[in-house]
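User: Could you go from structure to sequence for me? I need the amino acid at each position, not a summary. Structure tokens:
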């Protein structure tokens, strides 16, 4: 089961909804379906449980049969076919049926607690969330007429969504893990929040380990490259007979470097008598390189 399906399953099974929130929840589910007008009320979804919930709500409000179609592709379509039934649904939420476009009727979101129920249903109707293992992304696909209204509701709960246009739909989305966790907590997906946070913590630790490993590997590569240049310089001095002309300090340092190509400058400095600082070792090795040229 995908993470998105887990979230929707938990939201569908959310219980103990007060009457005012129940109205807001039904409203969000139907309003943000594919169509919500006098001529058409239906939803397209890939989630069977969402389709069944939509059908239950539509039948309850329309007092008529609602058709659920299961396509061979695995998608579902739920249609309120009765004209009289569609009008009853619209009337239940304060619409006459003559509206030219969909807009949110704020009278259906009476109390502060209703925002959570409404957004929970909106996510069921048109929301998706990616697996946190892959990316942090939650989005709603909405018609233009509802875009600004939904943004306003999200702002009411201190969530600021970004927007893009994709084909004929408008996408409101979050890419920050903090915003996504806030939304999931708000709508009541508590089990999924714990899973999400667990994945995030693991990814953060893994990324920190990777950064540290990359940093250490880069340091090792730099150390190895410098050691190779220093060793080549010392070998050059030996070949042309200049090695024996080095001062005792440079000669002792050169010999340690030849015998220990893997050591850092600090480690080499500790092997000298008397010990020498890292910068002191680097200065002397640079001198050897210059002499080899």
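Assistant: Here is the amino acid at each position, in order:
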């Amino acid at each position: 089961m995908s993470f998105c399906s887990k979230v929707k399953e938990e939201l569908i099974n959310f219980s103990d909804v007060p009457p005012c929130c129940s109205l807001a929840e039904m409203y969000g589910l139907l309003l943000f379906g594919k169509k919500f007008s006098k001529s058409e009320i239906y939803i397209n979804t890939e989630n069977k449980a969402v389709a069944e919930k939509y059908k239950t709500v539509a039948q309850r409000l329309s007092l008529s049969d609602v058709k659920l179609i299961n396509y061979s592709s695995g998608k579902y379509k739920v249609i309120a076919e009765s004209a009289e039934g569609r009008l009853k649904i619209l009337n239940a939420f304060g619409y006459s049926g003559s509206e030219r476009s969909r807009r949110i009727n704020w009278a259906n979101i009476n109390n502060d607690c209703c925002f959570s129920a409404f957004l929970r249903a909106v996510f069921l109707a048109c929301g998706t969330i990616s697996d946190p293992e892959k990316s942090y992304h939650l989005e709603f696909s909405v018609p233009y007429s509802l875009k600004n209204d939904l943004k306003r509701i999200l702002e009411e709960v201190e969530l600021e969504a970004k927007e893009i246009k994709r084909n004929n739909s408008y996408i409101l989305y979050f890419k920050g893990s903090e915003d996504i966790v806030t939304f999931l907590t708000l709508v009541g997906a508590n089990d999924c929040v714990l899973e999400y946070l667990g994945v995030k913590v693991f990814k953060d630790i893994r990324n920190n380990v990777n950064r540290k490993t990359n940093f250490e590997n880069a340091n090792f590569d730099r150390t190895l490259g410098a050691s190779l240049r220093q060793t080549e310089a010392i070998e050059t001095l030996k070949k042309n007979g200049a090695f024996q002309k080095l001062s005792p300090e440079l000669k002792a340092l050169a010999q340690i470097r030849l015998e220990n190509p893997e050591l850092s400058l600090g480690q080499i400095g500790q092997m000298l008598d008397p010990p020498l600082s890292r910068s002191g070792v680097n200065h002397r090795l640079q001198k050897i390189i210059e002499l080899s040229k």
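One structural detail worth keeping in mind: The longest strand covers residues 169-174.
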